[in-house]
Amino acid sequence: MAGHNDSETSGSDQGNSGLGSLFAFLIRDGNLMRSPVLAYAVLASVTRSGMIYAINTLAGAAAIATGDVLLLLAAIASTLTFSHLARVASFRLVETTKRRLRTELSRRLLDARADFLSRRDHGKVYSIVTHEVNQISYASVNFIQSLEAALVIAFCIPYIFYLSWPSGVATLGAVVIGAIGYLLAQTPAQASAERASRTEWTFFDRVNDVLRGYKELRLRRARRDGLQADIVDAASRERELKVTAERFFSLGQTVAQGAMMGLLCLIVVGLPLFAGTPTETVLQVLTVVLLTYGPVETVMGNLASFSRAAVARRLIAGLEKDLIAEAETDAATTGPAAPPARFSRIELRGVTATLSEAPPEGATAPADDERFTVGPLDLVLEPGEVVFISGGNGAGKSTLISLLTGLRRPEGGEILRDGQPVTPANLQDYRDLFSAVFSEFHLFSRLYGLDEAEQTKVPPHLAELDLAHRVRIENGAFSTLALSTGQKRRLALSVALAEARPIIVLDEFAADQDPVRRKLFYDVLVPQMARDGHLVIAVTHDEHCFDKCDRLIRMEAGRILADTRQPGAAHAMADAASGA
Ligand SMILES: Nc1ncnc2c1ncn2[C@@H]1O[C@H](COP(=O)(O)OP(=O)(O)OP(=O)(O)O)[C@@H](O)[C@H]1O
């Protein structure tokens, strides 16, 4: 099973319920204070208490008074109205909280470092933005409902004291016993609920395997069975843990219900027998207690959902903490988009990077044999050059590309642009120099970020790349992405060319092109890009084309083995292509 590198501690480790932090979150960040929901809830509970009072007065009266009937009707009408308004406002609050949490988490994901995003085990992220965000958002409805119910109980307890003080004491006793039952049950319940959520992350990871690996899974039944067994295992463990959590929640609720039932027995049997309370008072107390039974059940039922939401709050906070730790600097991800910049020289000076997997759960650092070091790398690049990077699998070519494009920050050495070091403050400006088609590229369905002028450049490039018959641009989006692998890569190149950035990076672009398109790429497109003044950096294994670049960089074991210059080779290709 995939391990997760979680910075948060489990609920049981924390030793506190997290309810305080949950309520603080709901009140402070959940917009509770700015919503009319609190006012509606208070009004609904006041009118409900008035209704209880009116019912009780009418029930105990010798004759029905018109005023009491009118009071009852008014109380019913206003209770229904305010309860409805409170419900609508609280659901608005739920959706607002959900939207806020999801946009905040997405923003943090957009800001996260490439290292974090390139990890495969993102089941945790999916689970948190769906399940946990729902749990915490719906807690605001439960919070309002509970507040409304608690206010009714708070109004009714003094009234019970007023009717008969022994009943008042017994009612308070029942509330205290119920609260103790809940508090005792919630620690083990929360611990199981949290473990269940963590198991759900594994489940999402395996579902991701199904979606990504469907072809391999179709070809070998045993592979599919093995994955299915893992999915069943994760789902079963989650079920067991959730059932355990609910068993504890239910135990707490049973204690509270027992206390309420004990209270009813005490009122019906104990009061007349031991306190000599008259039947008329017993009936009045009984009516009030029965009418508050609903609000008590509401509070008791919601306590479990608060515990689940407290777990969700902890897990969301843990992910936020991870994302903050993994965030790029503000300057790298915020601020207005800079206009396409120019450069005259890019220099890598003693640049190094260490690649490692996320450590398994419980481990502090990856083992040495799980690390790969690239560099130190020294390299100077200038506009108008065509640079090919070659080397065996695992030589470090893609890592060099990540370092060069500013996606990965070097651990040692520095990158200089026109003699100035690239720092977090100017990193985004530096990245704006590049357009790229990575070996594992992603095609967005829309032309995000391209201005109108850039968008108008895409169709000519589609024609040049022999895609005009398959894809059109409609309202800033591609008409289709249902294309072959080679076509998709050419589509990605059409966007990169339309961006017209000074440096174009192509990682194994030709690998999935047919011979005709491969020839077009090496003999026409690349020389043309250089002629237009672009620095072209292409990772390639096509040895027979190594003579078509100005510089050939060979990599091995994370180092640059050779940097051979063949001046003018690419320009000569361009001249030949244009017939000059
Ligand atoms: N997260 C990681 N943890 C540890 N090692 C890693 C990690 N990512 C990559 N590596 C290792 O770093 C080395 C360089 O990888 P890189 O992707 O840069 O190679 P490459 O030259 O582009 O290879 P290819 O031609 O196969 O694409 C490889 O040996 C790879 O196994």
TrEMBL record:
GO biological process: peptide transport
Swiss-Prot/TrEMBL keywords: ATP-binding, Membrane, Nucleotide-binding, Transmembrane, Transmembrane helix
Membrane topology term: Multi-pass membrane protein
UniProt main location, coarse: membrane
Domain of life: Bacteria
Keyword Glycoprotein: no
Ranges for domain ABC transmembrane type-1: 51-308
GO molecular function: ABC-type transporter activity; ATP binding; ATP hydrolysis activity; ATPase-coupled lipid transmembrane transporter activity; peptide transmembrane transporter activity
CC annotations in GO: plasma membrane
UniProt entry tagged with the keyword Transmembrane: yes
SUPFAM superfamilies membership: ABC transporter transmembrane region, P-loop containing nucleoside triphosphate hydrolases
Pfam families reported for this sequence: ABC_membrane, ABC_tran
SMART domains hit by this protein: AAA
Domain ABC transporter: from-to ranges: 346-576
TM ranges: 37-55, 61-82, 143-162, 168-185, 255-275, 281-304
Stated name of the protein: Putative ATP-binding cassette transporter
Organism (species): Stappia indica
